[in-house]
UniProtKB/TrEMBL annotation, chain A:
It is found in: Cell membrane. Keywords: Cell membrane, Membrane, Transmembrane, Transmembrane helix, Transport. The lineage of its organism: Bacteria, Bacillati, Bacillota, Bacilli, Bacillales. It comes from Virgibacillus halodenitrificans. This is Diguanylate cyclase. It is a multi-pass membrane protein. Residues 115-305 form the ABC transmembrane type-1 domain.
UniProtKB/TrEMBL annotation, chain C:
Residues 94-295 form the ABC transmembrane type-1 domain. SUPFAM superfamilies: MetI-like. It comes from Virgibacillus halodenitrificans (Bacillus halodenitrificans). It is a multi-pass membrane protein. CDD domains: TM_PBP2. Its main location: membrane. GO terms for biological process: transmembrane transport. Keywords: Cell membrane, Membrane, Transmembrane, Transmembrane helix, Transport. GO terms for cellular component: plasma membrane. Signal peptide: none annotated. It is found in: Cell membrane. This is ABC transporter permease. The keyword Transport applies.
């Protein structure tokens, strides 16, 4: 072998003390240690969600809205259905913060009452869709074969049904009320969730890492907790978050058509409908408050859903 | 020998939300005309980033060539504008990618994709472009080229697609071809055919090749020289013979021992323990220290200088220091 | 391909049959049977109804006769408007609604795609940020809210546009903006996200390695791939626009099918509700079918798949 003829380095070798040329204590463990602290899936997702300013703003808005939906009607001196005709179309003032409507009802009280309806309808729809979707999609994906085939055909047919038309039809038959609205919204609404769950289940079945963990003798509960949930819950949670605004929209839309919550109760869609005539005469506040809150609630859920989608995507983990 | 490419002190960094990744940390190498240089290393060692840097295809942001030069025929590619670079890509330097399944656009015909580079860079008629495309299809060994030009990528097998990708890369007759893991995604039998094709093409066109791979079997078949990369640095470079038979760096030796060889039956395969260091905060000393069976105190503290063992053979390792040799000798005596 | 079309046609038929049956159930399950003892209907109407729905027959015969009348596109008389059939209303309202819908789709698709591409190309830049904020806002504001806001601002306050009816191009501007904003925002977001994904694909890197210009890379290599998902959601968007016409036509007093439909709901004019629902459903299902076929034509991979007769 040729003798080394030249050594270049930032430190010339002569500067290196001779006693550095001793064997290093071998530290096998150190070689295996990953140098960055590893965060759990949920910690990591939360960290990323917090960094998303828009999503956090949405979350804060929704928390405040929920608080106001609960306490708003309580702290207000007015009731939701108390009409006071001489007092109609009062602009926002110290007495009526959001003004009064065509029947002299307090818009402030009615707005928070509407928030209750909207949030309740949205959350119930999401929850029911989730439950049915998990069961149907889970069975379909898990069973596979013929059962899956038949169940998917059914989904395909339901998916082809025009959603709002069916909802309208059902409400015409059942008569409008809070319960029938939620029922009508979920009768075909669960189909989307079922599809996603089925897709996730099929994916899990094919994951090599599931097979791998099993062959290492990992406990089933651990496989579910560490592997399955992080890899499959993401799209399901996102779908739930996005079901809420679409249900809120549907409720407002139906109320606007006169098929939603009935007077004297209040819902944002109904308030917007009542305000239609009023804005032409310049009573902007009757429209502004329900319109603002419908839009911003949907906006908040949408940006939160987007944020969750980014935060929960295992592919984006770094 | 004429140097067509000379890379000096290349640094590439990526800024992510978790911090800055120093993916390539001062890489030096050159390429002679008509030769094949293989850059070998584990995944994540920076070999693909190096090849993308030559093409100036580092996505910016988050990536950035933060220092160094890449001289191609005397021009420093790092300093060229994007527009000037476009006239080099595909014409003077071409690139082929790892996975032929994704390297072809599923919605365009093979013919369109083959000819578009040609029509972009050379003033020729459609008919001439088609003739050239047919010629290339023949060169890379695709039967019924006339008919195949009208087909879509999904109508081809993996091996055939890689042949098309190669034809696409060579259609403007580039001087330099960068092949990033060209056989990794293929079946073993197809791999051999594609490697054979590389040899044939090099004979026919005289193109210089930079081959990025982690597979020493591929290297043995077609490389002239080999550069071994670890944690963003080239730690040893030499001719194929020098690397295979006189490897000096413990990492290179480890790499060679972890590959099954038919000629040394019965010899045990020894994996290299541990994992490469995190490039968010690379160690100051030799990055291999933590996994090195010959690690000394000095290795952790200072990065070793380059020792030239021959014209071609260079290694970055403290074991080349006289004092380390004494230490080795005394240990052996005990 | 033929097998695929046949399969789709079968599913379409089943879906339609479900809708028709639902409407029949609606008719017989309304408390007090509106068709039999509708208060305040005059005698001619009552006679027409009896003739059309064969109310003296048992339910299963009624059902079969109802199916037959649907198949022959005879949707029967209206309760509330004497001497008017549902077909009369459809004939008057549909052309207007169709015009509104088509223009809305064109506006939404073109502006949505352009916005999405620009946002993707200027990824993380100020334009991207603004376009996407606008898009989320567009998705979040319900069309009826947007419509009323537009009327209040642009028609009542500043009087730039006329406020109601469908008599000139100026009358069409506000309803189309109100109806197109939501779908446009959805298309823009989808185009942006698929475009971003497509731009990281190896074939785009390959195209760059060939030295193609950014313009060519976007329009020749990326766009077609990025638009495939947009085609798949067209069905949902069409349904949204269609139901959107109900409220938009109501708000802007446009004499289209949607307005009649909303009126029929409010007046509980059941034959009109039934007939319009069936007509809307058939129209929508047919559009979904066309979208599916279009997708098959756009993507070369699917065509071959079907030639193989696998699905």
């Amino acid at each position: 072998m040729k003798v080394a003829n030249k050594i270049e380095t930032a430190h010339s070798p002569a500067e290196i003390p001779n006693d550095w040329f001793t064997w290093k204590e071998t530290d096998k463990e150190a070689a295996e240690v990953v140098s960055r602290p590893s965060l759990s899936y949920w910690q990591d997702a939360w960290k990323r969600l917090v960094k998303n300013k828009l999503a956090m703003a949405g979350l804060v808005f929704l928390v405040l809205l929920t608080i106001m939906a609960i306490f708003g009607p309580i702290i207000s001196p007015y009731t939701v259905d108390k009409t006071n005709l001489p007092n109609q179309f009062q602009p926002p003032s110290g007495d009526h913060w959001f003004g009064t409507d065509s029947l002299g009802r307090d818009v402030f009280t009615r707005t928070w009452f509407g928030a209750r309806i909207s949030l309740f309808v949205g959350l119930m729809a999401a929850l029911i869709d989730f439950t049915i979707g998990i069961i149907y999609g889970g069975i379909s994906g898990y069973k596979g074969g013929r059962a899956d085939n038949i169940m998917m055909r059914i989904i395909e047919i339901l998916y082809g049904l025009p959603y709002l038309l069916v909802v309208i039809l059902l409400l015409v038959v059942l008569g409008p009320s809070l319960g029938t609205i939620i029922l009508a919204l979920t009768v075909t609404g669960w189909v989307g969730m079922a599809r996603i769950v089925r897709g996730q289940v099929l994916q899990i079945k094919n994951y090599e890492f599931v097979l791998a963990s099993r062959s290492f003798g990992t406990k089933t509960s651990r496989i579910i907790r560490k592997n399955l949930i992080p890899n499959t819950m993401g799209p399901i949670i996102v779908q739930m978050t996005l079901t809420v605004p679409s249900a809120i929209f549907a409720e407002a839309f139906l109320s606007f058509l006169g098929l939603g919550i009935q007077s004297p109760h209040a819902s944002w869609g109904m308030m917007a409908n009542d305000a239609l005539g009023a804005i032409l005469s310049g009573h902007w506040w009757t429209l502004f408050f329900p319109a603002f809150f419908i839009s911003f609630t949907m906006f908040a859920f949408n940006v939160l859903g987007d944020g969750l989608q980014d935060a929960l995507d295992p592919k984006l983990r770094k | 020998m004429e140097k067509i490419l000379d890379v000096k002190d290349l640094h590439v960094t990526f800024t992510t939300y978790g911090g800055t990744v120093k993916a390539v940390r001062g890489v030096n190498f050159h390429l002679n005309k008509g030769e094949t240089l293989a850059i070998v290393g584990e995944s994540g060692c920076g070999k693909s980033v190096t090849s993308n840097a030559i093409m100036r295809l580092i996505p910016d942001p988050p990536g950035k060539i933060s220092n160094g030069s890449i001289h191609f025929h005397g021009k420093d590619l790092v300093r060229l504008s994007e527009k000037q670079m476009r006239n080099i890509r595909g014409v003077d330097i071409s690139m082929i990618f790892q996975d032929p399944m994704t390297a072809l656009n599923p919605t365009l015909t093979i013919g369109t994709q083959l000819m578009e580079g040609l029509r972009q860079h050379k003033k020729i008629t459609g008919e001439e472009a088609k003739q050239k495309a047919l010629e290339m299809m023949n060169l890379v060994g695709i039967p019924n080229p006339e008919e195949r030009l009208k087909q879509y990528p999904h109508q081809f097998s993996g091996g055939m697609r890689q042949r098309i990708v190669i034809a696409m890369a060579l259609i403007c007759e580039p001087e330099l071809l960068i092949a990033d893991e060209p056989t990794t995604a293929l079946d073993v039998t197809i791999q051999a055919q594609i490697l054979e094709l590389f040899n044939r093409i090099q004979e026919a066109t005289g193109v210089s090749i930079i081959l990025i791979t982690h597979d020493l079997g591929v290297v043995a078949k077609i490389a002239d020289r080999i550069a071994v990369m670890y944690a963003g640095k080239i730690i040893e470079v030499g001719t194929k013979r020098e690397i295979f038979y006189q490897a000096q760096h413990p990492y290179t030796k480890g790499l060679l021992k972890s590959v099954p060889r038919l000629d040394l039956q019965g010899e045990k395969l020894t994996p290299i323990d541990g994992t490469p260091p995190d490039l968010f905060s690379p160690p100051v000393g030799c990055p291999f220290t933590a996994r090195c069976p010959f690690a000394m105190e000095v290795c952790d503290k200072v990065y070793p200088g380059t020792t030239e063992l021959s014209d071609a053979h260079k290694v970055d390792c403290w074991l080349q220091d006289e004092r380390a040799k004494q230490l080795l000798a005394s240990t052996a005596n005990n | 391909m033929l097998k695929y079309i046949l399969k789709r046609l079968l599913i379409m038929a089943v879906t339609l049959w479900i809708i028709v049956t639902l409407t029949f159930v609606l008719m017989v399950s309304i408390p007090g049977s509106p068709l039999n003892e509708e208060r305040g209907t005059n005698e001619t109407v009552q006679k027409n109804l009896e003739a059309h729905y064969n109310l003296d027959e048992p339910y299963h015969i009624q059902y079969l006769l109802y199916l037959k009348s649907i198949v022959t596109l005879d949707f029967g008389p209206s309760i509330k408007q004497p001497n008017q059939t549902v077909n009369d209303l459809l004939g008057r309202g549909f052309p207007i609604s169709f015009e509104l819908g088509i223009v809305t789709i064109l506006v939404a698709v073109f502006s949505g795609i352009i916005l999405g591409i620009v946002a993707a190309l200027k990824h993380n830049g100020i334009i991207d940020y603004m376009a996407m904020s606008l898009a989320v806002l567009g998705i979040s504001i319900p069309n009826f809210v947007l419509a009323t806001l537009l009327i209040q601002q642009l028609a009542v306050k500043y009087e730039i546009f006329p406020v109601a009816t469908w008599s000139s191009p100026a009358h069409m501007v506000l309803p189309i903006i109100a109806l197109a904003t939501g779908p446009m925002a959805i298309i823009a977001r989808l185009t942006r996200s698929t475009m971003l994904e497509v731009l990281t694909q190896d074939y785009i890197k390959m195209a760059r390695a060939k030295g193609l210009s950014p313009w060519k890379i976007v329009f020749k290599h990326a766009l077609k791939n990025a638009l495939m998902p947009v085609v798949t959601i067209m069905g949902t968007l069409l349904a949204g626009i269609l139901t959107g016409t109900f409220v938009i036509e109501k708000i802007f007093a446009i004499p289209g099918m949607g307005k009649y439909f909303v009126e029929s709901i409010n007046q509980r004019d059941y034959p009109v509700i039934m007939g319009t629902t069936v007509f809307y459903s058939a129209f929508l299902i047919f559009m979904l079918f066309l979208v599916d076929i279009a997708y098959g034509i756009l993507d070369p991979r699917i065509k071959i798949h079907k030639k193989g007769g696998e699905s």
